[in-house]
Amino acid sequence: MRIDIISVLPELMESPFKTSILKRAMDKGIAEVHFHQLRDFGLGKYRQIDDEPYGGGAGMVMMCEPLDNLISKLKSERNYDEIIYLTPDGETLNQKIANTLSIKDNLIFLCGHYKGIDQRIRELHITREISIGDYVLTGGELAACVLADSVIRLIPGVLNDEQSALTDSFQDDLLSPPIYTRPAEYKGLKVPEILLSGNFKKIEEWRSEQALKITQKKRPDLLH
Ligand code: 6GU
């Protein structure tokens, strides 16, 4: 998978892809992330990329021309499956969206800034708009990292133990059951007997029960 990320602050997104599991995905060639500085496509001596909104109002708007030039250049180089605009008014990211995107080959993530992008860029290029939740960030960069992480970790070969993506919270619209490691007793708190029993059928039953119970308690909205 290749992800091209368009931003005025690409440096904000470097470390997540240089660390741990995402780094390993990059090193193995399973995923590649390319950053594009929108400012390089800015207009004039000052490399302008934003301007005041027509009709007035607070905040600046990301202009058509730099975005159109950069996106058109990328599109001339390969076919993109989706061109995603990270914006608080997009559809809220969930595991289903991450699953869908994890089987794509080429994605563009456009990070919004200021008041957002000129509507015509949405009409010309954007195929999908995604938010990471109902709160406002200073820009789309951290959201782009969250989206990329949620997607890249699902690509086969990225996680060591393929099972671990399949047993994630949310993968079946259920939260994960409690987990324990050694010691069997800590500060008087005991690991549930069943987990020490070696009876894997019973253990799986217990985990399913617990997952259901915890979901009922913490996130009843997930159970349709
Ligand atoms: Cl994608 N962008 C911004 N600026 N804020 C957000 C968001 C995106 N998702 C949630 N809040």
From TrEMBL:
Presence of keyword Cell membrane: no
Principal localisation: cytoplasm
GO MF, one example: tRNA (guanine(37)-N1)-methyltransferase activity
Superkingdom: Bacteria
Domain tRNA methyltransferase TRMD/TRM10-type: 1-223
Family: Belongs to the RNA methyltransferase TrmD family.
Protein name, UniProt field: tRNA (guanine-N(1)-)-methyltransferase
Species of provenance: Chryseobacterium koreense CCUG 49689
Gene assigned in the entry: trmD
